[in-house]
Amino acid sequence: MIPSSMLYPKNYEFKIGFDKIRELIKSNCISSLGISLVEQLTFLTDFDQTLKKLQQTAEFKRILETLQPFPSSDYFDYGVFLLKASKIDAWLSEEEFHNLKLSLITIEKILNFFSKKSEEYPELALLSVGNYLNPNLLYEINRVIDEHGRMRDHASPELAEIRNLLTQQQFRVRRIMERMLNDYITDGYSNDDANVTLRNGRLVSSFEYPSVI
């Protein structure tokens, strides 16, 4: 097969206006992963490959037109997270673990979708063949990261103990601040509606000097 680079000049894409089509497709991508794949698109010279891509496109067009419940969110590039986690002494943040979890859930939904509709969408279903999601991986991540993307208090005994101590210390500090604030209010150094609140993980008071007319 003759390489496409030998059949078309380097500026062929611009001559036929495909660069505008590429940008239009990119503008409709819902993830950075999709944008990256669009940027890698090249012209095909093999008839069978071209026909296969057209069939895949037609099948997915039918999915969109019939408004079937195909997963349409949480498309993160999980490869970035796995690469980072594979390095020695590296770790993922809560947000990265949460995004990885959402990515795995999306993959699981896609595999289930095509396993049930392989006859209706045979070409797209073939793309899922050989792909397997270990349920234990998702289970373990879910055991540590909650639905809001925060590490669960009981992810480990050590973490549970630390967070329990922090809660106790916050309660103790709050009581001290409330007593001090009450004294200020009683002595007329603060407005009656002043209070102690938690802001950005820190205890603060709305202490203000009363207005003097």
Helix/strand layout:
Elements: H1 4-7, H2 12-15, H3 18-27, H4 32-39, H5 47-65, H6 78-85, H7 94-116, H8 122-127, H9 135-144, H10 157-186, E1 196-199, E2 202-205
Please supply descriptive tags for the structure shown above:
213 residues; mainly alpha; two-stranded antiparallel ribbon; 10 helices; 4% strand; disordered C terminus
| Radius of gyration, in angstroms, nearest whole number | 28 Å
Reading side by side through the largest sheet, how are the strands ordered?
1-2
User: How many helices in DSSP terms?
Assistant: 10
Q: Quick one: overall form?
A: elongated
Structural class by sheet pairing and helices: mainly alpha
Largest sheet at a glance? 2 strands, antiparallel
Indicate the multimeric state: single chain
Summarize the helix and strand pattern as letters.
HHHHHHHHHHEE
Helicity level: 55-70%
Write down the overall mean pLDDT: 82
